[in-house]
Amino acid sequence: MIRHLLSGADLDADTATQILDTAAEMATVAGREVKKLPALRGRTVVNLFYEDSTRTRISFEAAAKRLSADVINFSAKGSSVTKGESLKDTALTLQAMGADAVVVRHPASGAPHRLANWVDGSVVNAGDGTHEHPTQALLDAYTMRARLGRLAGLHVAIVGDVLHSRVARSNVLLLSTLGAKVTLVGPPTLIPVDWAARAGAAPAVTDAGPAAGSHPGTDVCYDLDAVLPGVDVVMMLRVQRERMNDSYFPSAREYARRYGLDGPRMRRLPEHAIVMHPGPMNRGMEITPEVADSPRSTIVEQVANGVSVRMAVLYLLLGGNNR
Ligand code: NCD
User: Which of 49, 76, 122, 203 could form a disulfide with 317 if both were Cys (CB 3.0 to 4.6 A apart)?
Assistant: First the structure.
């Protein structure tokens, strides 16, 4: 097993599949009256959150507690970070407390990689800037496999603000490792230029974010309606206004008209296709309530699956089997 989980690229097909299979076993615990396993008794998991989070923070906490670990929740607000303490000094404090795993969310891309050099325990990236969010990609893959029975050969459209999305980046990496085909869909200003150029689409003129590299089986399309009839999965992304210091599209109304998933568009999907969203949603912008609350939507399942997947990640990283 790997020591840290920092990127979707840390996972080869065998390791990713082992995590998904272990998550399926962990899911049975959720159905029990006593939702607890003794696997990580005596181990300490620190949740280090420098950025707001609802689902990810709660599900890592639930996952660690279901495995009987001691959990310390640290949020930057109310800590010495507001007095100017550096990430390194915070890391040394965690080290002194004997953290076996540090789950970190940070607004700076790359912060978890730095942290991994300073602590002896395992580091799990719970979202760093616009870079990566590997456990989200794992729970998305788990949800697709649970609903559609396989990952290899699936066609997944990832739609919207790809440029600012760590969820999209980690999904592209993991899904291509697991044999799915990904089409990135959005306005040219919100697709990273290098991805668009490598996929053969005309590159947009934009102050694009970090470079992403090319991935087998990934292409780009600016027309949502053209893509919908041929996909098995459509994953809608939140428009991340907090990361935009410029205007990337004319208006919210215009964005919704071209790239929002509404009822008529959903009905153009094949019968079996599912609709995903990592949350939090801008209802009425990238997705309408009719779609978000429809039986095709896996949004609530994704949250439940997030706990099982994070249990599997913590269990395997902390030596559930071989450490
Ligand atoms: C995502 C995140 O924070 O990266 N949400 C999540 O973890 N469930 C996506 C987002 O903020 O839009």
Answer: 122
